Amino acid sequence: MRRILTLALSTFMLAAAWLAPSATAAERVLLAPGGMKATLSATPSAAAGLRQLRQKAVSQGKVRVIVGLRVPFAAEGLLGGAAKAAQRRDIASAGSVLRKRFASTVGRDPDAVQGYSALPFMAMEVSQAELDRLASDPLVLSLVEDKPRRPRLAQSTALVNAPQAWQAGFSGAGQTVAIIDTGVDGKHPFLAGKVVSEACYTKGACPRRASVSTAAGSAVPCAVRAECWHGTHVAGVAAGKGPNFSGVAKDANIIAIQVFSRYGRGITAWDSDILAGLNRVFELRNSFRIAAVNLSLGGDSLFHDHCDGYDPAYVAAIATLRSAGIATVVSSGNDASTSGIASPACITGAVSVGAVWDADGWNCDDSASAVDKVACYSNAAPILSLLAPGSAITSSVPGKGYRESHGTSFAAPHVTGAWAVLRQMAPQSDGDQILKALQDGGKPVTDYRSPFMTKPRLDLAGAISRFTTLTITRSGSGLGTISINTATGVYGDRASGPADCSSGCTVAVPLGLDLTINSAAAPESEFTGWAGACTGPSPCQITVTPNLLVNAVFTGVSHPIDLHIAGGGSVGITTTTGGKTCTGDCSINAAPGTTASLAATAGNGFMFSGWSGEACAGSGSCALVMTGAKSVTANFTPAYPLSFTKTGTGTGRVVFSPAGTAGPECGQSCTQNFTPGTVVTLTAIAASGAKFRSWSGACRGKRSCVVTMSEARAVTANFSGR
């Protein structure tokens, strides 16, 4: 595609100092040390960059700049809640102060001043005098030009083995990819129902000529030039789905962000708007499972090594997304360079992608092309991350159509889609692990152009083969938790969180990864050992091999129940694991936290008089909550039986006072036990229509029967009808 603007500006900024994302990095630091004036005097290249910005401001009347704010910063995903809120307040406060200091600049064109909620940068359009004021302002840490970026222009998914991933059940389902480009035609059949969020950040090229919009329909393709098909094509490669062919992550959703404005006779995306798009993706991290953001765009300056000093705002933005588990995939550029790639592909943490052919044909240098031949236009450098199909790529364009296109623009979304597929398969793997799988599982392709670098070409089946399943189970009578750690911390991406193995789990893990598997026994339990791939004590150190099985055994610490029986009788004990009946002193163990039940049964000549000891009371059944060792005594006292029988043609009741072991009354007959010497009174009460006639046995007459229990007794109550 024709170049829009050629820039070769030095960067006016302080020496870059970047805290790379890691599991432990959470200290907020300035993105550059020292002071602005010290840098101007000490760094000739920085002074030259400022002179070029001044010259541009003089020649054009104004120049767009990205202003770095003097605010200590860490990628937000690495910060705790309070530190995160404090950093946002500091960014907002610094931006507010700078807006007040440059009130006339803001008032001249409010839309030209942009701030970013999660990034310590502002974009402004300033005159030479305002530029000089910024350069000397103590709140300003860096200044770089707000540069324009241009877009980088059925067989490719088969070449990267996406169908094999689909057959294995991994198609990007549940994942979302963000496309920051010229807009996306969400009504295209290839993309129908996929666009779940839209935004637009431009210089007046959003719907209704707005500069900012996040409403539905915000990311419709820009309408200023023919190149506005670009974003729809890119989105189709990453996540399109059709009846005959599909994009790489055919079941993923799309966040569409339009950032291109009219620029001369073409279109361009300003850094300030791209950064706003990246900031928007970060703000949506809790609303969608965002696997990756795609930037099929870039500038004209090329870099052999990482270019963090050239674009510090992109360093912060990409690192912030990484801290939330979101990859930034960037096309390497189409300048046919073998010694440099464009920015922001050259930023540390960006996943840079060059292009290969996916079919035989003719290359742009008139040499014969072939499958996996590096496209002659594709930029390359030692820091290039991956290659992917970028030539002869058929995908969607606005208006329900399709077209074949060439460019690293269309290589990058292959990787973006692949990232979503792998994120679905291995949600706990972090960005470094996914990139390593893509690189180790890719097909090595040697660039036929000097200096003959070999880089991995995307192969989804190969990447998937770099993972295996780790199954962890828990067994035994006890309770406990299991966790997985790597050398850098808990195994789990910051977006998806750690693998939950408290009751066992099955997770996808990269082959060859060194893991530490920890066990933690719950209260009243103990860890008693491993089974399977782990042996010995906890923790278990293991290197991942195919299809690992690990079992952690936890044993409940049993508590004893010591039972003493006083007198004649038995006690039945029931626990969660069984039980027993004791006719004499006995002991049984019960699991911590469970409840054991005890029921007493008196023997002949005895009655149960109640429980004693620390755990039970009364004369009913006893429920023991096993919070520790328990000691219980079941007391049985000698007793004489009083046998009772009711006879005759009438009906009635007989009440015992005091109540016996069978209660205050009994039915047709019963035997009540009483302690020796107990005086028992039996009162007969005839029912309606009946008459109490007399007692027999140990009692006589018609009055209440009084029996002294000096031996076994028997009494009969006679009732008749009237």
Automatic annotation (TrEMBL):
<feature type="domain" description="Bacterial repeat">
    <location>
        <begin position="670"/>
        <end position="720"/>
    </location>
</feature>
<keyword id="KW-0645">Protease</keyword>
<feature type="domain" description="Peptidase S8/S53">
    <location>
        <begin position="172"/>
        <end position="434"/>
    </location>
</feature>
<dbReference type="InterPro" id="IPR023827">
    <property type="entry name" value="Peptidase_S8_Asp-AS"/>
</dbReference>
<keyword id="KW-0720">Serine protease</keyword>
<dbReference type="Pfam" id="PF00082">
    <property type="entry name" value="Peptidase_S8"/>
</dbReference>
<dbReference type="InterPro" id="IPR022398">
    <property type="entry name" value="Peptidase_S8_His-AS"/>
</dbReference>
<dbReference type="Pfam" id="PF18998">
    <property type="entry name" value="Flg_new_2"/>
</dbReference>
<keyword id="KW-0732">Signal</keyword>
<dbReference type="InterPro" id="IPR036852">
    <property type="entry name" value="Peptidase_S8/S53_dom_sf"/>
</dbReference>
<dbReference type="InterPro" id="IPR015500">
    <property type="entry name" value="Peptidase_S8_subtilisin-rel"/>
</dbReference>
<feature type="active site" description="Charge relay system">
    <location>
        <position position="409"/>
    </location>
</feature>
<dbReference type="InterPro" id="IPR023828">
    <property type="entry name" value="Peptidase_S8_Ser-AS"/>
</dbReference>
<feature type="active site" description="Charge relay system">
    <location>
        <position position="181"/>
    </location>
</feature>
<dbReference type="GO" id="GO:0004252">
    <property type="term" value="F:serine-type endopeptidase activity"/>
</dbReference>
<keyword id="KW-0378">Hydrolase</keyword>
<comment type="similarity">
    <text>Belongs to the peptidase S8 family.</text>
</comment>
<dbReference type="InterPro" id="IPR050131">
    <property type="entry name" value="Peptidase_S8_subtilisin-like"/>
</dbReference>
<dbReference type="InterPro" id="IPR044060">
    <property type="entry name" value="Bacterial_rp_domain"/>
</dbReference>
<dbReference type="GO" id="GO:0006508">
    <property type="term" value="P:proteolysis"/>
</dbReference>
<dbReference type="InterPro" id="IPR000209">
    <property type="entry name" value="Peptidase_S8/S53_dom"/>
</dbReference>
<feature type="domain" description="Bacterial repeat">
    <location>
        <begin position="571"/>
        <end position="638"/>
    </location>
</feature>
<protein>
    <recommendedName>
        <fullName>Peptidase S8/S53 domain-containing protein</fullName>
    </recommendedName>
</protein>
<feature type="active site" description="Charge relay system">
    <location>
        <position position="230"/>
    </location>
</feature>
<feature type="signal peptide">
    <location>
        <begin position="1"/>
        <end position="25"/>
    </location>
</feature>
